[in-house]
Input
Amino acid sequence: MKLNRLFLLAATGLGLFACNDNNLVEGDAPNEILEEGTTYVGFTLDFGETKTRVEPEEEEAIEAESKINTAYVIVADGDKISQITSTAESGKYVLQTTPGSHDFYVVVNPKTVPTTANTVDEYFNKGVAIGADEFADTTTPSFLMVSGKNTFDIADGITKDQAIAGTDYKTNSFTIEVERVAAKVTMTCANPILTSENGNEAGGTISGIAFNLHGGATMAYRMEQDPFSDIKGNEWTYEVPGIDVLDDEDDYTQARAVYCLENIHTTDIYRKGNTTHLTLKTTFTPTNVVDCADEIKPLKPNTQDPGSSFYVVKEGDFAGNYIMKADLETYQAGDSDKMPEGVKVLSAEYQNGECWFGPIWIGEEFPDGELTEAPIHRNTWYNLAISKITLPGDPEEPDIEGKEEEPLYTPTNVTITLSVLPWHFIEREINLH
Output
């Protein structure tokens, strides 16, 4: 499914002045008197009213996701860039050009400014580096927004005033749609159901749910590719840690977001080392724990503070239950080999009560019941809604080191509900083990 959606740009009075790199000048004649073979064309380019639409209501996108720092309207003759304007007048970008059919492109907030020395292919169809730190800057954001190829038939004899005042193609007045290169990821969790791998009845509470993004692409095409081809030099290395999970499943619009570049590959090359994913961390506080003694005793209420370290009993009569590190050390009194009755083997330490889950592949697709792809598309919002957590998870953050070439797997503990809405909005329900 192609997830890319374009944003319609509404005019809001950006100031504009025509510049052109093709020596198409008016001369000394008044504005209403055009030199032979020239005409004006105006384009609406403004993100002020951009919405993140979620039916049945509309939610505004935050300013950083739609802010224009710089914008360039580009005219191309075939593959050659012939004219560029970056200034505005009365709400429209205006160019003086020749009548007839022309190709137009737009790029917003680029690090590298287009020039007439560029070709369309080298500027739009080559991978450019964009780092996670740039998306994290909400004060002067670097959300690269671009359009595809737009071909318009430009009428002759249209003055600048007519192009600015015009509302349709007959007066050389057009709107160009653009899309963000970034994708948006959020996670929500409302009263998750806690279960145990071993069915114990110890109970407990979780807090401080947060996720880390791993394996983000370091490069992207400025313009959408169809068909997509893999970008030479992409390293899949940037990471974004510590993103809070919103504890309100229904109000995802308030969730803290992280942004990443699209993660699309050609057929059958999705691997753990080149696929963007999340790891999830929670702090778990058991309600009832093993009472350390030389005889088997009933579970006792946990008296340790939230965030205290614990172990999971792996073998013995108390298998599947929790034992607090402080209680065990008091019982052992310096003899690390001494174990309470009913406890034979312990897990690794869950330091500070931290439990880890994942990897969670953000763009999961399950053809024929097996996970073979996990594409992330630009201009798309992915929300992962946690509906169930199966404890205890892992004592350390899942790591793909040494497993980079392994194919993705289909986790049986993840259920997905997919919705596609402009940004686009995607919601997934996931069960975590």
